[in-house]
């Protein structure tokens, strides 16, 4: 239990900041591109309470943390409403709006990595706690960016793909949005379980998200000069 409480103390703030900034970025870019829906609803803000989803921001991360013994936590905020028909250039601007969330997450990961240089200036115990928060901040922001850029609606990568693919292909991909959540849950939970049952490694989430996120995290740390 002490390990779980410590994991909560070093994970809650980075996760909350990551998902809040992600959603706020969507709303801000949409507002700049002509759709003020999110702005009028007060969602173009870094106030986390405007973005908290009771299940995705509180219950789900808590359950994952408990079930994994403090090793894993993930969550999401309330999606920012965007009326793509109000964007000045719907197909072009849809790409910008969708890419804004993962883009901000990568910037936050880089900022968290850079702040690791400040840790040696802090008192030892507090510095260790701050360092753990920053390391989690790097990881969770990169993880969010990579996961959300998978080319499957309703993820951001799916919307980017719909915006840049030729119309016939874009239409076919867009039609998958109604099944997107089911497909994602199947890839993350069901397929690996089936693989374990038959003795095969079918952990697609590991291949497509965890491994790339690990490489990107290492690259960001190297970029800012943190070994």
From TrEMBL:
Domain of life, source organism: Bacteria
Annotated membrane topology: Multi-pass membrane protein
Pfam families: Peptidase_M50 (PF02163)
Primary localization: membrane
Alphabetical UniProt keywords: Cell membrane, Hydrolase, Membrane, Metal-binding, Metalloprotease, Protease, Transmembrane, Transmembrane helix, Zinc
GO molecular function: metal ion binding; metallopeptidase activity
Segments forming domain Peptidase M50: 130-165
Transmembrane segments: 55-74, 95-116, 128-150, 179-198, 204-226
InterPro entries assigned to the protein according to its UniProt record, in alphabetical order: Metallopeptidase_M50B, Peptidase_M50, Rip2-like
GO cellular component: plasma membrane
Cofactor annotation: Zn(2+)
Gene Ontology BP annotations: proteolysis
Subcellular location: Cell membrane
The family this protein is said to belong to: Belongs to the peptidase M50B family.
Official protein name in the record: Peptidase M48
Organism: Candidatus Defluviicoccus seviourii
